[in-house]
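Fold this sequence, please.
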Amino acid sequence: MSDTLAEQAPPDHEASPPGPTLSPSRAADFMTCPLLYRFRVVDRLPEPPSPAAARGTLVHAVLERLFDEPAAARTPAAARTLLAPQWERLVEAEPALAELFAAETERQAWIDEAAQMLDRYFTLEDPTRIEPSFREMSVTTLLESGLTLRGYVDRLDIAPTGELRIVDYKTGAAPREEYEARALFQMKFYALVLWRTRGTVPRVLQLIYLGNGEIMRYAPDEADLLATERKINALWQAIDRARTSGDWRPRQSRLCDWCSYQALCPVFGGTPPPLPESALPESALPESALPESALPESALPELAVAEPV
């Protein structure tokens, strides 16, 4: 998640090195559709807020703030109490969110859905027994290839023995088995960054799906993370080829139904705008601070970049 929240761990590097950077969200954009990546990173075209993305941001914010409470006070009622003030804070930071709902009844139904997700969280974990080491933790590392990886980890739990557990909250439903690779790629991305910066392979990667109340757990090893690093480097090479050639071709899928750029997409009869001058072949493509994708978490494609041998 890329929501800016008050209590945020300092990044592992105070400033990112110059050169290209990549986050899990932007990697997912390119794997979903190179033209989507171009619109977001190269053209930096604005997108209207969506109820799904806003709900995800709100639920994440509440779960982060919940751990400010003493352990015994981390109850479903306490979480619901946090909804209104966190929504007000988000609207203050992004006034356009206030225009998402045409009527108060519509907004209240949306809030109720968020409350149900929070209630579901308590059926999956007991927050009175958890003391996170970091929440909304900024992580950054520079690979030997010169590519900087960055992102935000929802929660990092560190055991007294030093073992790491990376936790990510998802407000969608758990993906079908054939799509699990995409979700795990994001978590392996974070695990790779933490391994490179802390020297420890995380013991558990844990995805908590609040849409349908499931938990996915995975125990990575060094071979997993080395393969992930090769995959990321191959992905960046594909992005760099698209930048050099100017060929950001669209990839049609059922996710197109949720894309806010249909009017500019050739698949739907649109014409992309001219590439900005800053996208010249000799220029690197550092990422701007972009929000997480609003595409449904349960309907994402498998990885489209082949791992090099």
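Residues 8 and 168 are 15 Å apart (CA to CA). Residues 222-245 form the longest helix (24 residues).
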